Amino acid sequence: MTGVAGSAWLGGLALLAGAGLGWAIRGFLARRALTSVRALEDEIERKDEELKEAHALLAETSLTDALTGVHNQRFVDAAIGTLLAPARRAWREGDPPPEHVTLVLAEVDHFDRIDAGGQEPGDEVLRATARALLRTVRGGTVIARWTEAAFLVISRTRFADESRSLAVRLRTSVAESVRTGSGAFARHVTLSLGFSIEPLSRAHPHLASFRDHLALVDAALRRAQAQGGNRAVGWRVNEDVLERAIASRGEASVAALLRTDPDAAEAEGILSQAV
User: Fold this and answer.
1) Are residues 101 and 28 in the same domain?
2) Residue 162's CB: how many other CB atoms inside 10 A?
């Protein structure tokens, strides 16, 4: 009888021990699983951060010119509504006056000759030009590489007259600090610039779209080049003449004239050259 009781007691101990071991094993496995889950969550979070950083880098790269480090056309196309908003907002009596936005196209003079000496000299001139432009402008100004040798500058200004002074400062900065060649063959690099104020007309802020206005600025740039380069030429609208032209022919007709033939608009007195 004692042997049976002892055997039962030992069996109970074994059962308890087995149960305890089972709980211990289950606890160990649960802790191990929890640790694995946490490690997996940490890994997923780390990968997620890496993915976000990769997306941010990709976005920045897609909006930046690889050679010069300034913005590119894609950035301007994405942001132009925001950039022009201060100048195009509706204005009512008693409101603070809308700001102006200056548009400048600056192109390196005779870049084809510089580039003919090899890709690296041409690339270095573009990089140095971008640095000189960046040094000249204040914070909030956008500089974008627009074509192979041209840069677009978009700057908020308080007064319309500031557009010309900005263009002159940009031209001077490059002429004084950027050179091509070396030794006896070194020469200063110069810019031709076209500029204008956005909106083209304060009374008719939507007279010209951004692209149409930029075409006018480009026409001013070509005129600066035709006049020998190393100079800035801009446009300003004569509001009284513009009003008479719109009253006579309609805003759409005048907008088309400005878009397609700025020389004819100048001949009519709607536009005047500002130098």
Assistant:
1) no
2) 15
Q: Comparing 32-46, 106-120, 195-209, which segment has the lowest mean pLDDT?
A: 32-46
Tell whether 22 and 97 lie within a shared domain: no
Task: Give the integer Cα–Cα distance in Å for 74 and 71.
Answer: 8
Listed in sequence order, the DSSP H helices in 63-177 are 73-88, 111-116, 119-136, 162-177
| pLDDT tens per residue across span 243-255 | 999 999 999 999 9
Q: Which domain holds residue 226?
A: 73-274
Same domain, 20 and 109: no
Of the two residues 181 and 68, the one the predictor is more confident about is 68
Whether residue 212 is found in the same domain as residue 131: yes
Residue-wise pLDDT for 99-126, tens only, equals 789 999 999 999 998 877 777 889 999 9
What's the CA gap between 230 and 35, in Å, rounded? 69
Structural domain contains residue 157: yes
Contacts of 168-175 with C-beta under 8 Å, sequence gap 24+, read 168/232, 169/136, 170/104, 170/106, 170/133, 170/136, 170/137, 170/232, 171/106, 171/230, 171/231, 171/232, 173/132, 173/133, 173/135, 173/136, 174/106, 174/108, 174/129, 174/132, 174/133, 175/230
β pairing state of 179-180 and 142-145: unpaired
Task: Report the Cα 129 to chain-centroid distance in Å.
Answer: 17
| Whether the Cβ atoms of residue 201 and residue 237 lie closer than 8 Å to each other | yes
pTM: 0.76
154 forms bridges with which residues in the sheet? 103, 142
| Cβ atoms 153, 197 nearer than 8 A | no
